[in-house]
Design goal:
This protein is an alpha+beta fold and 506 residues long. It has helices at 2-48, 66-79, 83-106, 114-121, 141-146, 161-179, 182-203, 220-232, 257-264, 268-273, 297-302, 323-326, 370-377, 381-387, 424-431, 435-441, 478-493; strands at residues 54-57, 60-64, 211-214, 244-249, 291-296, 333-335, 354-356, 359-363, 401-403, 415-417, 446-447, 455-457, 499-500. It has a 4-stranded antiparallel β-sheet, with no helix packed on it. It has a 3-stranded mixed β-sheet with strand order 1-2-3. It has a two-stranded antiparallel sheet with strand order 4-5. α2 crosses α8 (220-232).
Length: 506
């Protein structure tokens, strides 16, 4: 019996080997091809990126020496060494970049700076360096608070893509105001102003505002930045993230994350993953940060991303008449950490913690000074000056509102009709809007004095097709408006009387 079975088993084994051999061969060949494709991808992609002798950055011409080319080429190779890691990073870049590009544009920053965030954190929101720099742009706490970012037991704006990017823009623009050179300003973000000045002096790396030599004297940080620009400049935005698109949910103040999760039908853990800036389960009522909601492409298309309460007027003919009375409702003043109720300046006590237009602040008394207000707000003088768009020479105005935190980038209503004695600054304080944002929304490339009855846009940028408009208010007569319009036209023609507006700081 056994003599018959063994030959049969041997024959069956031989037949199975014959059948499976081609399959095994194909599997092994497939694995070999995958490995080869990965290797060839790295080689091919890296080889397609040629480091040029000249490259543009922020309207500057950078001339790259042969020795610098080699350093940059090595960094390019390291960035593209792993196809898998490169694709994961590119997907993350394409997810966040629309928000970053929008903020940099609003802040008046050269778009080329967008590549620096890839270099700094690979767009990992809770990235922490060995030197304890945190977040998307890798800010240390002192530098972050210097530009008005909030860091406390509830939130850390260094991990919020919008507020961190605004803070970055403000920080770099401070360097630019000193160096008048975007490349020095970029290096200043890494070394600080003092460190950059020392480096320039030691290396004798003197460059012009529009032209720079990238050679052995240039810092490695510059080499790495150029490498990141070369690797990503042609691929950013070519494709969307394969699954997601980010939505800024600005109506999230005071809401529970769980409620937001249910509202958008997005898993709570996904909401938490994209909002690591928030250390609690509820969005604080006094934060300017919007919840970032990761939506699938289908969800995003179905979503009406324009909030009903803030839709833009669609008609070019706009009725401004009602907005004259709206001005009396502002600024809104309420006690902090207490039920909000309407108050007037006369009922406010100096020791009371106030929310002015939703921002911590104070109403100045007759005896107040810059020193007393900064002490009461428990902030630095430099912070107080920045938050209120004033200089150290500013004289405190009795009854005027002042803020202890950064003002909003847009107003609570659409328009304001200029009233007697009002200025751009007084309107910015009235509505809690950053002065530079107010100029930007009104297309004030060169700042001129306001005219009585002039319409000021508060929420959106005035379309180019809509001219500056004037409204006949109860304090104006027809002849006054005509005279003001003629004066306005004359003033626009006199460039010598116009003051160049500072860089936008939204």
């Amino acid at each position: 019996m056994s003599k018959r079975i063994y030959p049969l088993l041997y024959q069956l084994h031989h037949q199975m080997q014959s059948l499976l051999a081609p399959v095994i061969k194909q599997v092994l060949l497939g694995l070999f091809l995958l490995i080869s494709i990965g290797a060839s991808y790295t080689t091919t992609y890296a080889e397609t990126i040629t480091v040029p002798s000249k490259i543009t950055f922020a309207n500057m011409q950078l001339h790259i020496s042969p020795s610098a080319k080699k350093e940059i080429e090595e960094k390019v190779k390291s960035l593209t060494a792993s196809p898998t890691h490169y694709q994961i990073l590119l997907d993350r870049v394409n997810l966040y970049m629309p928000i970053i590009e929008k903020i940099l544009k609003e802040e008046g920053m050269p778009e080329d700076f967008k590549y620096l965030i890839i270099q700094e954190s690979a767009l990992i929101s809770d990235q922490v360096s060995e030197s304890n720099a945190v977040g998307f742009w890798q800010f240390k706490q002192e530098a972050a608070t210097e530009v008005g970012m909030q860091i406390n037991s509830h939130i850390d704006e260094r991990m919020h893509i919008v507020e961190a990017t605004r803070g970055f823009a403000k920080y770099v623009k401070k360097h630019y105001s000193h160096f008048n050179n975007w490349l020095y300003s970029l290096l200043g973000f890494y070394l600080g102003r003092g460190g950059t000045i020392l480096y320039i002096k030691e290396k004798k790396w003197h460059i012009k505002p529009k032209k720079a030599a990238i050679d052995h004297r240039a810092h490695w940080y510059i080499y790495h930045f150029i490498a990141h620009k070369l690797v990503f400049q042609k691929v950013i935005g070519k494709k969307k993230h394969p699954h997601l698109r980010l939505y800024e949910y600005k109506a999230s103040s005071g809401k529970q994350l769980a409620a937001i999760s249910r509202h958008f039908e997005v898993p709570l853990q996904h909401i938490q993953e994209y909002n690591k800036w928030l250390k609690t389960t509820e969005v604080p009522t006094n934060t300017r940060c919007a919840i970032i909601v990761p939506l699938k492409h289908g969800q995003y298309k179905r979503l009406d991303t324009t909030e009903p309460a803030t839709k833009r007027p669609k008609k070019d003919v706009i009725d401004y008449s009602s907005y004259y009375q709206h001005a009396d409702k502002f600024p809104t003043i309420a006690l902090d950490n207490a039920p909000k109720r309407k108050m007037n300046h006369a009922t406010v006590l100096p020791t009371e913690a106030l929310l002015i237009n939703g921002i911590p602040g104070i109403v100045a008394k007759e005896e107040d000074t810059l020193a007393s207000l900064t002490e009461r707000g428990n902030i630095l003088l430099s912070e107080f000056l920045t938050y209120n768009d004033i200089t150290a020479e500013h004289l405190i105005q009795t009854g005027q509102v002042y803020y202890f935190q950064k003002k909003h980038s847009k107003g609570p209503i659409h328009y304001h009709i200029t009233q007697p004695a009002e200025t751009w600054w007084s309107i910015a304080q009235k509505y809690g809007v950053q002065l530079s944002a107010l100029w930007h929304k009104n297309r004030m490339k060169e700042v001129t004095d306001l005219q009585l009855g002039q319409v000021v846009w508060l929420r959106f940028i005035r379309p180019a097709r809509i001219p500056i408009d004037y409204v006949q208010t109860p304090d104006l007569k027809d002849d006054d408006i005509t005279t003001q319009s003629m004066a306005q036209e004359s003033q626009e023609e006199e460039e010598s009387l116009q003051v160049e507006m500072v860089s936008l700081d939204l």
